[in-house]
Inverse folding.
């Protein structure tokens, strides 16, 4: 079995990729929970002026009718005006694309950005919607019945892990 | 018709008889022996007891026929083994005129089911202002006078009514409840009502009214029967009154020796009763008092209520429960729980109420009226709307399984019900 | 005792009828979810699409503009369709029974009923008769419960005081008739508040209230000592006529909250009121408008709390 990519090693490469596209209006938003951890690191590495925004898509998911409001919703906080900005939306794993769809819907309820670029650490394929990442750390093959998660150790180091899907 | 009831366990609380034997019926009474019976009823495995005497059963006629009719409720009575019943005067119009009483007795007599003993209104229209023509009503067949659940707020009228009744030796049956202290209340004033946010009727609404009644009995000598005791404190007062020698008897609704305000659960309107179900302590005191005779007898307080008037928020629902068919199994249940013998348990619904009523039924003895019930004390009765013959399907025991099924009922020597 | 009708077979909240009987975890889930919704109401677009396409029927048998309005705002912020029925005026007066009214609305594809009724227990009767996908939220029944008010009161207390485990809370006024008081008491005891007090004249304190886990005070000054939270209840004018209270002035003298009495409470005590206030009867204007008062924030929190309740219940 192929080993999973080293998240820590991917981080500086991603930051280097993103740097050229930054504009004066750029701002970063991380998706709870894994995307937020990732965004914190990238935000620091890129030295962005605007504070980091955090999004919880609990109220925009498309599976509410089936699952209800089960997830423990955290509070979305966008400490800047979204209007007219070039946004960097950061998530840990890109899979079906539904999370990103929900995140974009929520972002547009805050205002009208000039552009949104998607940054992900790992793309595992399996898209169900026409969504793609502008910056991707690595492609990862995930065996059936497994889930790819980003974990954060006590010392803050990030690591990709596979676990059994529920 | 000569009937031989063979091989049953004959239980006669009045005499203490309890053993397997035969009972002979001829010409409407219990006979010493029958030469050749016209019919033999095999009663092996069954209890043969006096028919139940129920001092409070609402038949809803006249006036409230959409709730129940004389036919349906008399069928329910004999299906429940009740052979004599007293009906309260709160019909529509109330039983305050001899003509109404007469008509009711004729109708009941024509049905030839249970014996009906009407209780007349103490005041005209039960309004608590003017006395009724008690001697006329007694001549028409009233066995006692009562206000049912209607308040009698003017204590001077109450005093005069008791005096007048005492003049002729009439019995007065009254509930002890101060209408002002009970005003607006729908449940016992305690922890449960506070939690549920229901207006409460304090226990002292009963005891203060009872104190007044007992004082008036001391002054007038009226034979008083206190209906539907609900508090432990009232039990103590009755005990003292009896020890003092006052002419007082009392009864308890059979539901009140089993249920408490805890059974209201999530606002179960089937538990909306008058008087209200009180605490577990009150329930236990009533159950014990019924056993030791301080409370003379248990009644069904049968009150058929249609579903439209029960499927309402608790304080809007009409109070009352169906009970004619449940009096026997609930009395048996009470007896088992108090570890009483069958005769002692049955006394409270046969010989003792008969004594209060002043009638010759309620016992098995040569020459006594042949009012009998044959029942299987172990057979289960599942309480469902379909199983009940009464039009009143309103019961806190819906869905429960009780033990004690009637197999046959005789009134005046005729079989009026057979399962 | 039958199963708590608020919880479905999996122990999830399907109706909100009363705070009593709800596990601690459910209460905390509601408060935490409300915290997330509070962020939504601060945005320009104050909506989320969670209940899009769902119909919320406001069934108010007791008139109330303010509670009904906050439920309507909350439902609309969840993108639900809201229909208001002042049943007090229409079908009830034609003699239609409560259950018939509900059955008719059910036939119109309702998803959520928000019910306010003058009789304690009415929402339970409704909840027993709705279809499996329909949910009932109690907006106040008789004197029994007002769970969303209790929850927003808990949210308010948590917002200002953080830790329930060290608080002394006093509820002052007409406890006898108050569904707000009952709901709040259940919430406080479930969340582990060590000292809950009720303060009022004997005529306004119900029998057996100690069984709910509260200490009774008839002397307001004694009861306020050291309190971290003071909740003032509304005194209704009707109470002045019945033999419960002699007059508004008498009540204010003994049980009205003035700055002088408030000084007996903890220095950082907060003052709450479910509204609407009777100034000069239960509370002095200087206190109602003063630095300890959190009465206006309560209203704001109320919208987030109702959004939380609706979205949790409608999803189960």
């Amino acid at each position: 079995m192929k080993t999973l990519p080293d998240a820590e090693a991917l981080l500086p490469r991603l930051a280097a990729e993103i740097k050229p596209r930054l504009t004066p209006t750029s701002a970063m938003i991380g998706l709870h929970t894994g995307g937020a951890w990732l965004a914190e690191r990238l935000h620091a590495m890129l030295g962005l002026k605007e504070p980091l925004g955090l999004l919880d898509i609990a109220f925009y998911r498309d599976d509410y009718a089936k699952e209800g409001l089960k997830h423990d919703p955290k509070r979305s906080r966008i400490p800047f005006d979204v209007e007219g900005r070039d946004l960097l939306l950061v998530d840990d794993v890109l899979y079906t694309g539904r999370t990103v769809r929900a995140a974009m819907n929520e972002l547009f309820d805050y205002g009208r950005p000039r552009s949104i670029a998607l940054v992900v650490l790992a793309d595992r394929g399996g898209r169900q919607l026409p969504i793609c990442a502008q910056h991707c750390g690595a492609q990862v093959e995930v065996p059936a019945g497994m889930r790819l998660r980003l974990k954060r150790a006590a010392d803050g180091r990030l690591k990709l892990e596979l676990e059994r899907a529920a | 018709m000569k009937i031989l009831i063979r091989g049953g366990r004959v239980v006669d609380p009045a005499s203490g008889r309890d053993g397997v034997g035969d009972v002979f019926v001829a010409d409407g009474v219990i006979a010493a022996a029958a030469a050749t019976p016209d019919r033999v009823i095999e009663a092996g495995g069954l209890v043969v007891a006096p028919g139940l005497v129920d001092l409070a059963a609402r038949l809803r006629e006249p006036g409230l026929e959409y709730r129940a009719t004389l036919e349906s409720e008399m069928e329910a009575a004999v299906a429940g083994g009740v052979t004599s019943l007293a009906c309260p005067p709160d019909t529509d119009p109330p039983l305050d005129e001899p003509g109404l009483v007469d008509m009711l007795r004729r109708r009941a007599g024509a049905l030839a089911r249970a014996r009906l003993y009407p209780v007349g209104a103490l005041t005209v229209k039960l309004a608590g202002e003017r006395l009724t023509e008690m001697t006329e009503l007694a001549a028409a067949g009233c066995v006692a006078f009562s206000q049912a659940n209607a308040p009698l707020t003017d204590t001077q009228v109450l005093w005069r009514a008791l005096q007048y009744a005492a003049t002729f030796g009439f019995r007065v049956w009254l509930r002890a409840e101060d209408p002002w202290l009970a005003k607006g209340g729908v449940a016992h004033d305690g922890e449960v009502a506070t939690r549920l946010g229901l207006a409460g009727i304090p226990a002292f609404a009963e005891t203060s009214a009872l104190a007044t009644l007992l004082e008036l009995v001391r002054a007038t000598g009226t034979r008083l029967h206190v209906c539907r005791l609900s508090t432990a404190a009232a039990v103590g007062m009755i005990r003292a009154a009896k020890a003092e020698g006052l002419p007082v008897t009392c009864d308890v609704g059979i539901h009140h020796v089993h249920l408490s305000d805890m059974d209201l659960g999530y606002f179960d309107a089937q538990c909306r009763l008058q008087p209200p179900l009180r605490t577990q302590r009150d329930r236990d005191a009533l159950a014990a008092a019924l056993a030791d005779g301080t409370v003379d007898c248990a009644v069904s307080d049968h009150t058929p209520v249609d579903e439209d008037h029960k499927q309402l928020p608790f304080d809007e629902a009409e109070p009352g429960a169906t009970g004619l068919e449940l009096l026997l199994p609930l009395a048996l249940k009470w007896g088992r729980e108090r570890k009483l013998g069958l005769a002692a348990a049955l006394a409270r619904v046969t010989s003792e109420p008969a004594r209060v009523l002043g009638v010759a039924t309620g016992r098995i003895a040569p020459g006594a009226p042949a009012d009998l019930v044959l029942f299987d004390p172990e057979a289960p009765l599942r309480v469902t709307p379909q199983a009940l013959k009464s039009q009143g399907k309103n019961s806190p025991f819906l869905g429960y399984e009780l033990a004690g099924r009637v197999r046959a009922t005789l009134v005046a020597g005729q079989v009026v019900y057979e399962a | 005792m039958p199963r708590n009708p608020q919880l479905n077979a999996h122990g999830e909240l399907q109706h909100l009828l009363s705070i009593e009987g709800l596990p601690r975890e459910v209460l905390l889930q509601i408060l935490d979810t409300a915290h997330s919704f509070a962020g939504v109401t601060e945005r320009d677009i104050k909506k989320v699409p969670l209940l899009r396409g769902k119909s919320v029927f406001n069934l108010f048998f007791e008139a109330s503009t303010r509670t009904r309005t906050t439920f309507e705002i909350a439902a609309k912020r969840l993108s639900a369709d809201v229909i208001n029925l002042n049943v007090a005026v229409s079908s009830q007066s034609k003699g239609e029974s409560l259950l018939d009214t509900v059955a008719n609305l059910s036939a119109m594809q309702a998803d959520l009923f928000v019910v306010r009724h003058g009789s304690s227990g009415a929402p339970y009767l409704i909840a027993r008769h709705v279809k499996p996908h329909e949910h009932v939220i109690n907006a106040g029944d008789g004197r029994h419960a007002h769970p969303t008010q209790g929850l927003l009161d808990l949210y308010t207390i948590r917002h200002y005081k953080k830790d329930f485990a060290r608080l002394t809370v006093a509820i002052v006024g007409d406890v006898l008739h108050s569904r707000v008081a009952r709901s709040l008491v259940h919430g406080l005891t479930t969340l582990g508040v060590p000292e809950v007090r009720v303060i009022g004249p004997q005529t306004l304190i119900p029998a057996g209230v100690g069984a709910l886990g509260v200490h009774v005070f008839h002397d307001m000054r004694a009861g306020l000592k050291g309190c971290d939270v003071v909740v003032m209840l509304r005194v209704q004018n009707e109470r002045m006529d019945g033999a419960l209270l002699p007059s508004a002035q008498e009540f204010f003298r003994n049980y009205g909250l003035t700055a002088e009495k408030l000084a007996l409470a903890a220095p950082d005590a907060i003052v709450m009121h479910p509204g609407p206030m009777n100034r000069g009867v239960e509370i002095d204007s200087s206190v109602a408008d003063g630095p300890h008062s959190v009465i206006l924030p309560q209203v704001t929190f109320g919208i987030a709390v109702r959004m939380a309740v609706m979205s949790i219940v409608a999803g189960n």
About this structure: The longest helix of chain B spans residues 204-220. Chain B has eleven helices and 18 strands. The CA atoms of residues 217 and 250 of chain B lie 14 Å apart.
